[in-house]
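Example: Ribosomal RNA large subunit methyltransferase J.
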Amino acid sequence: MLSYRHAFHAGNHADVLKHAVLVQMLDYLTEKDKPFWYIDTHAGAGLYALDHEWAQKKAEFDTGIGPLWRAAEGGETLPSLLDAYLDQVRELNPNGELRHYPGSPWLAWQMLRDADRLRLFELHSSEIKVLSNNFRGAGRKVMLYDGDGFAGIKAILPPPPRRALVLIDPSFEDKQDYARTVQSLQDSLQRFATGMYAVWYPLVQRREAAQFPSRLKQLRPKDWLHVTLTVRHPVEGGLGLHGSGMFIVNPPWTLKAQLQEAMPALVRLLGQDDGAKFMLEGESS
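Written out as structure tokens, the predicted fold is:
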């Protein structure tokens, strides 16, 4: 039974890290005059209203996108990675009031060109209905799949243009998602070794989460980056989210330097206690 609804968490610190990285990867792909596909294994609703009662219940955006938005509105000059991300959020909030937040599919939709394509998977029966409504009228650029993204991407890799960004970001509500993500990335690399892959995961007090980065590294990709953002000390005896990570295979060559510049600012703006920190590592062939 799937119960996770991202609207309760839209715009939180984990979204900030994931989407700031995603915007840079998409921007890099659009620099070449060659089409590509954006593939999202767990698309969610795609677009979120921050004034909706679900988002307001915990107001997680107020300690995520909120501090960045307020810093920029207050005249602070932010690192280029964060500024580019905020530019995409501003597209949905042209009057300067932060009311709407773009999920990963919507960010991609805003940035893709006429020849590029979106392929979006969503298994949750309620979420796929909202996603379909949000992308109504999008035309042939977008194809939605009502089903399991882990299984679905096997059928569409490699994509016809041989260029793609694949985002693998399950909720990890089910602990089997850790193993399924590793297997999915392994299968995908065998089918399409030159694709860009971005894997998001939560920092929680769970054995599977602690072992997850090592399991991804054991796949031995030639080029990878691994970045984590911790916003607070873990709650003693709790399973709450105290940070998140991104593991990127075949990253843009510019991304590491951009993260080195941006992560200290994220720690400063989003840190909730003295446990706030970041980690950045990687290998290149």
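Residues 81 and 258 are 6 Å apart (CA to CA).
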